[in-house]
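Quick one, T. Sequence first:
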Amino acid sequence: MNFSQKLGLFILIVISAAYVYFSFFSAEGFHLNLPQKEEENPPAEELTPISGNEDLPKEEPQHSYKTVKIFVADSNGNLRSLNRQCDTTLEKSCFAFAIKELIAAPTSWEKSKGLTSEIPQGTKILSVREGDGNIMIDLSSAFEAGGGTESTYTRIKQLIKTAKANTNLPVYLYINGRQADVIGGEGIMLKQPLSERSLDD
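Structure tokens:
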């Protein structure tokens, strides 16, 4: 073996040794897949935070009540007041509640006691708007339909007395969005705002 062959063989051995070293023993090239040690404390499962109040019974709101008055007619045609309890926790306006109760009255029990209402069935409250200095009640046209002159006078008085019993503000009556200065086919004149003298000639 001449010198050139010996030199070539030496270089080949050096390259082979270097390859083996870097492939198997260097920090980056060592690829033996040894089993990894399990973590002693595996990460805990994510839990939804608990405030501590979920199982406690929810506290019911404290209800407070205000007495409102509505007016119906007795068997002799005289107007009588009835009390209703307005739940101020639920109702935005106890005045509006009183008007709603007036339109719905009387109850079956009250009817059994001879109490009636001249407000026609089918009358709907279109709106009750309470402004800074007045209140506007807007009713459907059924309010002025049928019953004759005496019945119309009575239903207007029921509305007036109910309104004035539940507010000191001026109250105006509208029918289908228009101020009601004349009511019914009989042409009953109505002075506004509503008062005990609204029906005076």
